[in-house]
Design brief:
The protein is an all-alpha fold. It contains 5 helices and no strands. Helix 2 runs antiparallel to helix 3 and helix 3 runs antiparallel to helix 4.
């Protein structure tokens, strides 16, 4: 049994198959947003592109944080930081291109849910 499977989970946790489906869908939306940003001539596009890359990298790095014993608290804090970064990215995207910003809204929602889930996992498994 894996570490994650051994955890006590809240009753509202999505099924396992939903996670890869959600992340790949969000990454596809982010790729379209990034493409739109790269085609913009606005000065703010460089900052928005930097935030897109930063939130993507920190989201990927989070996966290395969550999957291991004793890391649930770090995982919850890490995702809280990712959520702040995703919100900042969404705002920056909106200032450059409204559609690019709109394409990041589902990521805000998803990372918000993931952050709530991470804190719930920590609350239910404080010693894990």
């Amino acid at each position: 049994m894996s570490f994650f499977e051994s955890l006590q989970k809240p009753n509202w946790i999505p099924p396992n198959w939903a996670f890869p489906l959600a992340w790949f869908s969000l990454w596809a939306l982010q790729a379209v947003a990034l493409l739109r940003l790269t085609q913009s001539s606005k000065h703010a596009s460089k900052a928005a592109i930097g935030l897109v890359v930063a939130q993507f990298v920190t989201s990927i790095m989070w996966q290395a944080v969550i999957f291991g014993p004793g890391r649930l608290h770090l995982s919850a804090w890490w995702l809280s930081g990712v959520l702040v970064l995703v919100i900042a990215t969404t705002i920056a995207c909106f200032t450059v291109d409204r559609l690019a910003g709109a394409l990041f809204v589902p990521t805000c929602v998803s990372v918000g849910i993931a952050t709530a889930l991470a804190w719930s996992l920590y609350r239910l498994n404080p010693l894990a």
